[in-house]
Amino acid sequence: MDNRKESKERAKMLSALATVSSLAMMIVCDFMLAYFGGDWLDNYFQTGDHTFRVACICLAIATVFLTFFKLIYSVIVDKDDD
């Protein structure tokens, strides 16, 4: 019985580690894509300012916060199950 609990805890820790590491990679990729994609859109539509770049970066920030909240919520739900 004790071994099952330990293996379940280990699986939860590995799942959290995988989520955090993928979140870090997502942050880097999202911001790079948002910056360069927004720059390309600004050049393509010749806006003359950073309209699309700022919009894309704001979208990347929103997705990062939503992912953080999803991670926190899943940890809270896991604690409630115990």
**How is the biggest beta sheet arranged?**
none
Give me the strand/helix succession. Answer: HH
Helix content: over 70%
Proportion of strand residues: under 5%
Mean pLDDT: 87
Low-pLDDT segments: none
C-alpha geometry: elongated
Number of helices: 2
Tell me what you see in this structure:
With 82 residues, the chain is an all-alpha fold. It has one domain (2-81). It is built from two helices and no strands. The chain has helices at 2-45, 51-81. The longest helix is centred in the N-terminal third of the chain and has 44 residues, at 2-45. The two termini are 14 Å apart.
Which terms summarize this structure?
82 residues; mainly alpha; 2 helices
Tell me the layout of helices and strands.
Layout lengths: L1 H44 L5 H31 L1
Helix pairs in contact: 1-2
Summary of the model, kept short:
This protein has two helices and no strands. It is an all-alpha fold. The chain has one domain.
